[in-house]
Design a protein that fits this description.
Low-confidence stretches of chain A: none
CATH topology of the largest domain in chain B: Cyclophilin
CATH architecture of the largest domain in chain B: Beta Barrel
Number of helices of chain A: 5
Order of helices and strands of chain B: EEHEEHHEHHEEEEEEEEH
Radius of gyration of chain B: 21 Å
Strand order of the largest sheet of chain B: 7-6-13-5-12-9-10
Oligomer: heterodimer
CATH class of the largest domain in chain B: Mainly Beta
Distance between the termini of chain A: 26 Å
Number of domains of chain A: 2
Structural class of chain B: alpha+beta
Mean pLDDT of chain B: 91
Number of strands of chain B: 13
Order of helices and strands of chain A: EEHEEEEEEEEEHEEHEEEEEEEHEH
Low-confidence stretches of chain B: 1-6
């Protein structure tokens, strides 16, 4: 079982949910920028949520399936087609051998995820399939996918086999078959570009004006934004008085402010530690929102209570569990 | 930090909704470091349900956890469900800190790092000497006779934040950073000294290079140095450096 890259797109890499347990060695966590989308893509094809998917960015790849295969796509809308026929997202798709999936320019969002049933047959490095580009580690040869790369696929799970069986009952015409069911629309993010946050460790050390601006004014996402972090420009954020901090751990969604006053939202490929003041921490459930914003777009911040942040996270996890359970039941 | 308060010698704050920071002080201090190391070791060997990982830094320890797994583990207990996962993790950690007080001395490991000082490998060695009114040999002598401690690993894979360098060779960062510093470079920045595990831009004063690999992605652990290690720099000749490199192949 394998797929072949016909055209790689702008930046297509294998990502899972990152390397856990290695930050104390300075090893970045990495993994999918939009973990929610990557997890759901896997669930739709009967994989473990943490399986590696292909993360594509702004311009999608073109991929040939060298066998019949069960796949799914989630995340931003890249107007996917299979042999020139419009293909659905947020839904399992059974593709025929020899068919070609093409993802075009990203219409909405910024990143999409392609999961294949069984997952990619790729050796894990430090317990993860994620590609760490700067370190040339993990994923497919430690790099972004290129033309003519061939990725092998593992045997699919029993759930995936059931999905395929059910799908095969439906009309057997065209380059692919998609079942009638898909993820309920309530699960598909329709987010405004507003990031909710809880206070960062040095929140109170910022000037009243800066705090006001941060919570109120839009920020532009700079072209220098990438998987490490999104650099924002807008009102300058200043401390009441300058402070020197010792390096300490940071996290996915930490908003730090270097002396130039332009905040940086740390994302999947962030360094493990940092020494700049932290004004905010984007809440976990809103991290997919920023992952789906393009450089050049605007973003707002809104402060919420810590307990609300945790409640939102628990709620989302329960919903994901429920979805997983429904898929399983449906396939019994 | 000589005053001993009877209780609470630490402060806990959330780092977002999935991590907690335990702060033990404000300044770099070996006693604080030992506490952090001790706690990190204990939590790693006695993880609570939902624990992901912890990262020691100079004056604090950050603990990453999965709030959903914590919540699920609470559901099965008699603990009131008004309690947040964060509160539960905080309480758990407070209990642990209380329990491990005064338990066991840690085993300290000393790692010897061979360094070929000067020449092509240490383009700033002369500047460091000039800045401190020393000869090159004196700088090498002072640097290789320091009592060094790795406080934390961060910035990039395997990069040690090392404390304990003599102020006699302290030198500010270069005014214009280099776009690429070769891996293995040994440098000085203020009173810090360190080794670059992978090639990266940087502004440190470069005084030599080690043939050792500090980042070993296929090893477990992937970092040669760990928080809590003692380090000794051993001067080697260019021939010895080459011999090390030959051996690696």
């Amino acid at each position: 079982m394998s797929i072949k890259i016909i055209r790689p797109g702008l930046l297509s890499t294998i990502q899972d949910l990152g390397r856990q347990g290695f930050q104390k060695h300075g090893v970045i966590v990495g993994g999918a920028m939009d973990r929610y989308a990557s997890r759901l893509a896997n669930m739709l094809v009967g994989n473990e949520e943490g399986e590696g998917t292909i993360e594509m960015t702004l311009v999608g790849p073109s991929i040939e399936f060298e066998q019949d295969m069960l796949i799914s796509m989630t995340g931003g809308n890249f107007s996917p087609t299979i042999d020139d026929e419009k293909a659905p997202m947020w839904r399992p798709i059974y593709v025929k051998k020899g068919s070609v999936l093409t993802l075009n320019v990203c219409e909405s969002g910024c990143r999409a995820y392609l999961a294949v049933a069984g997952g990619f047959n790729i050796k894990k490095v430090m317990e993860s399939k994620s590609t760490y580009l700067l370190g040339n580690i993990g994923g497919y040869k430690g790099r972004a996918l290129q033309k003519n790369d061939r990725l092998y696929v593992n045997e699919m799970s029993s759930i995936a086999k059931k999905i395929v069986q059910k799908v095969k009952f439906e009309a057997d015409r065209g380059p692919f078959i998609a079942p009638k069911w898909c993820i309920p629309s309530s699960y598909i993010p329709q987010a405004e570009p507003v990031l909710r946050f809880v206070e960062g460790k040095q929140f109170d050390q910022f000037s009243q004006q800066s705090i006001h601006d941060f919570c109120d004014k839009p920020f532009d996402i700079s072209q220098k934004s990438d998987r490490m972090g999104y650099r924002l420009t807008g009102p300058k954020l200043n401390l009441k008085e300058p402070m020197e901090l010792l390096s300490e751990a940071v996290s996915h969604g930490t908003v730090q402010v270097p002396p130039n006053g332009d905040p940086i939202v740390l994302l999947a490929d962030r360094q493990t530690t940092g020494g700049y003041p932290k004004i905010a921490q984007v809440i976990s459930v809103d991290l997919p929102i920023i992952a789906q914003l393009k450089p050049g777009e605007q973003v707002y911040f809104r402060k919420i209570d810590f307990s609300e942040a945790e409640a939102l996270l628990l709620e989302q996890e329960k919903e994901i569990d429920q979805l997983k359970y429904s898929i399983k039941c449906y396939m019994q | 930090m000589t005053t001993r308060t009877p209780k609470q010698k630490f402060v806990m704050t959330p780092l977002g909704d999935s991590a907690i920071v335990i702060q033990f002080g404000q300044t770099i201090d070996r006693a604080i470091h030992r506490k952090i190391k001790h706690l990190a070791d204990y939590i790693e060997t006695h993880p609570f349900h939902g624990f992901i990982e912890c990262v020691p830094a100079y004056v604090n320890l950050t603990i990453y956890y999965n709030p959903y797994l914590v919540w699920k583990s609470l559901e099965k207990t008699s603990i009131p469900n008004t309690m947040t996962s964060y509160d539960y993790v905080r309480q758990t950690l407070e209990t642990i800190i209380d329990q491990i007080k005064g338990i066991g001395e840690q085993v300290e490991r000393t790692v010897e790092i061979p360094v070929c000082y000067g020449g092509e490998f240490g383009p700033d060695l002369q500047d460091v000497a000039t800045y401190n009114h020393l000869t090159i040999d004196e700088v090498i002598d002072i640097h290789s006779n320091g009592d060094y401690l790795v406080y934390m690993i961060g910035f990039c894979p395997g990069f040690p934040f090392i404390g304990g360098m003599s102020e006699k060779i302290s030198t500010p960062r270069r005014s214009s950073p280099r776009t690429s510093i070769p891996e293995g470079s040994v440098g000085i920045a203020g009173i810090q000294t360190g080794v670059y595990p992978i090639a990266t831009p940087g502004g440190w004063q470069l005084i030599g290079r080690t043939p050792l690999d500090l980042f070993l992605p296929n090893n477990d652990p992937p970092s040669l140095l760990q928080s809590g290690d003692k380090v000794r720099f051993k001067p080697i000749s260019l021939e010895e450096y080459m011999a090390y490199q030959e051996e690696k192949k």
